[in-house]
């Protein structure tokens, strides 16, 4: 058998494009070029522009592969110019998945900020797939404004699921917003889970990660049970190019999710 | 271990035979430095095995500065020709040791590196005349090779004294056995003397040793010390691009006709944008942080990850430095 070239992106067409917010869009690919487990990521190639790392937002059990992506730079600018039916490339999966077997029988406490809800959605859907395995799933999600909330069309449905407790907040409300206002840490004042046994999973922008982690540590979660998505420059995804090194880890290979125990001694680990 | 002697008058014929089934590269002295040259029958063969490692390092053979790693949408594998690297010094082999770990030591294996490594026979040589810039001894290396290469030789008064470290090396001796005689004890004694003298010279050049807990000291260095160490660094990146153990790279895509080529380019952690992410956050936006990252990577991270320093003491970084920063001074003073 020919050895697989880990630098080669598998070509795949974009099946559907769903705008989520003014600068966040979900891209559903036509089929599933790679298998993955929740928490693993992929490199998405925009032909002749380059590639960038993204964690799928779809369930690992789905037949399609989805990414929910924020427009922030050169690669994502080019991606947002693509239309349904156009070609992208996918490499992966890379990194380690969430240790779902360790979550069994426990309350799972998920905290997301902004587009950080994308990988958490994949985790959430994986948990839903075997919801009876978990005591309860809590989600706390914060966006800047009501317009910046991703998966608006799906959230009410998720909130109705037995065994799911999902709360939202926005930093700044508007006339239509009836919900909570305040940064995501505001809805962490009350943590309804047993912090000594529950895993907590966080993904969001750097400042949100910093203050959320602080809050979760203060609340008493065990350091090895605080799972944090690390956003680092990851060029190869293979633990070879060295860009994502932080502390004693290659984030792409040993992460992209590390625990607070792993990174607490690093100065500004989320930067 | 059985050692073999190649008499000096047979060296050229041996090289000629080897080069019949692959390209052969060896060090040649030019303007006071040795450089890697390709063996060519039309050119006079004037190797130099006495001087220290070549000005260029051998990483180019395995991990070139610009490399096509994939083609899109249809990929294509370009075969590599067999090659012999003749006269490689131990400091450059430390680089191969690091690369072997990074590129093939864990999954997924880098197929290009593996193909080049598999197709390259490394014939190393002792380094009998260390120079002021050399400090392999401070990093646990000797100025001679005891493994990793396929064959090693020492230039002794009676010729070239060879040892084989791999099956490939043994096969070369076997295939060319008419050139070799079994080494005598006298030749081995000569080799021991040459090695002993080289070590003594290195110990004189580097009379101070690095502290045993170097890794921890690098990890714990405070901001003031880092700023002092950074000194006059002008970010020319010579220390990184010239380094035989640096392995940072960046993937970049280019259009070639209708297709796209994915190019792997050497990168360097001193570039301001090296660690910057798509959203703009940069964990090492300041030069002090980037400067120290090199030390953390080589002496703390790699030591924790692979139990070895990603530094060979070859001295290219201090010779190439525009600001004349000597890495040894920084490490001695930690």
Automatic annotation (TrEMBL), chain A:
It comes from the Bacteria. [2Fe-2S] cluster binds at residues 236, 241, 244, 252. One of its GO terms (biological process) is pyrimidine nucleotide biosynthetic process. Gene3D superfamilies: Nucleotide-binding domain of ferredoxin-NADP reductase (FNR) module, Translation factors. Binds 1 [2Fe-2S] cluster per subunit. Keywords: 2Fe-2S, Iron, Iron-sulfur, Metal-binding. The keyword Hydrolase does not apply. InterPro entries: Cyt_c3_hydrogenase_gsu, Dihydroorotate_DH_Fe-S-bd, FAD-bd_FR_type, FNR_nucleotide-bd, OxRdtase_FAD/NAD-bd, PyrK_electron_transfer, Riboflavin_synthase-like_b-brl. GO terms for molecular function: 2 iron, 2 sulfur cluster binding; flavin adenine dinucleotide binding; metal ion binding; oxidoreductase activity. Its cofactor is [2Fe-2S] cluster. Residues 7-100 form the FAD-binding FR-type domain. Coiled coil: none annotated. Pfam families: DHODB_Fe-S_bind, NAD_binding_1. This is FAD-binding FR-type domain-containing protein.
From TrEMBL, chain B:
Keywords: Iron, Iron-sulfur, Metal-binding. One of its GO terms (molecular function) is metal ion binding. This is 4Fe-4S ferredoxin-type domain-containing protein. Residues 222-254 form the 4Fe-4S ferredoxin-type domain. It comes from the Bacteria. It comes from candidate division WOR_3 bacterium SM23_42.
């Amino acid at each position: 058998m020919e050895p697989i070239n880990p630098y080669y992106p598998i070509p795949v067409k974009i099946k559907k494009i769903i705008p989520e917010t003014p600068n966040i869009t979900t891209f559903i690919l036509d089929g599933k070029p790679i298998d993955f487990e929740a928490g693993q990521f992929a490199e998405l190639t925009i032909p002749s522009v380059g590639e960038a790392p993204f964690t799928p937002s779809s369930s690992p059990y789905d037949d399609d592969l989805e990414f929910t992506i924020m427009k922030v730079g050169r690669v994502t600018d080019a991606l947002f110019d693509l239309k349904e039916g156009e070609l992208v490339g996918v490499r992966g999966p890379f990194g380690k998945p969430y240790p779902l077997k360790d979550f069994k029988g426990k309350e799972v406490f998920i905290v997301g900020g902004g587009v950080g809800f994308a990988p958490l959605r994949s985790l959430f859907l994986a948990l839903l797939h075997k919801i009876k395995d978990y005591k309860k799933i809590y989600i706390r999600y914060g966006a800047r404004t009501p317009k910046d909330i991703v998966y608006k069309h799906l959230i009410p449905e998720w909130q109705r699921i037995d065994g799911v407790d999902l709360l939202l907040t926005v930093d700044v409300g508007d006339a239509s917003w009836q919900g909570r206002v305040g940064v995501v840490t505001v809805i962490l004042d009350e943590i309804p889970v047993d912090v000594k046994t529950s895993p907590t999973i966080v993904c969001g922008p750097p400042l949100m990660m910093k203050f959320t982690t602080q809050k979760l540590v203060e609340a008493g979660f065990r350091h090895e049970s605080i799972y944090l998505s690390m956003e680092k420059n990851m060029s190869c995804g293979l633990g070879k190019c060295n860009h994502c090194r932080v502390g004693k880890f290659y984030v792409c290979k040993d992460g992209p999710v590390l625990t607070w125990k792993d990174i607490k001694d690093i100065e500004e680990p989320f930067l | 271990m059985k050692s073999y002697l190649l008499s000096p008058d047979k060296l050229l014929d041996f090289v000629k035979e080897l080069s019949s089934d692959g390209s052969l590269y060896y060090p040649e002295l030019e303007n006071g430095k040795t450089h890697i040259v390709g063996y060519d029958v039309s050119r006079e063969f004037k190797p130099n095995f006495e001087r220290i490692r070549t000005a260029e390092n051998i990483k180019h053979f395995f991990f070139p500065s610009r490399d096509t790693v994939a083609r899109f949408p249809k990929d294509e594998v370009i075969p590599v020709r067999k090659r012999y690297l003749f006269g490689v010094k131990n400091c450059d082999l430390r680089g191969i040791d690091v690369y072997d770990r990074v590129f093939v030591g864990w999954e997924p294996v880098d197929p290009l590196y593996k193909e080049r490594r598999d197709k390259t026979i490394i014939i190393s040589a002792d380094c009998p005349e260390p120079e002021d810039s050399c400090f392999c001894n401070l990093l646990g290396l000797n100025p001679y090779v005891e493994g990793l290469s396929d064959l090693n030789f020492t230039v002794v008064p009676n010729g070239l004294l060879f040892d084989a470290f791999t099956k490939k090396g043994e096969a070369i001796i076997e295939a060319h056995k008419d050139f070799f005689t079994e080494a005598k004890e006298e030749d081995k004694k000569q080799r021991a003397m040459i090695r002993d003298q080289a070590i003594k010279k290195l110990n004189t050049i580097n009379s101070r040793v690095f502290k045993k807990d170097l890794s921890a000291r690098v990890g714990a260095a405070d901001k003031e010390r880092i700023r002092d160490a950074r000194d006059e660094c002008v970010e020319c990146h010579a220390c990184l691009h010239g380094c035989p153990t640096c392995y940072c790279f960046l993937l970049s895509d280019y259009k070639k006709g209708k297709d796209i080529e994915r190019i792997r380019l050497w990168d360097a952690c001193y570039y301001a944008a090296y660690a910057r992410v798509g959203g703009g956050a940069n964990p090492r936006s300041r030069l002090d942080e980037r400067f120290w990252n090199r030390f953390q990577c080589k002496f703390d991270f790699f030591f924790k990850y692979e139990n070895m320093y990603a530094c060979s003491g070859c001295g290219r970084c201090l010779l190439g430095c525009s600001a004349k920063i000597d890495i040894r001074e920084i490490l001695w003073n930690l």
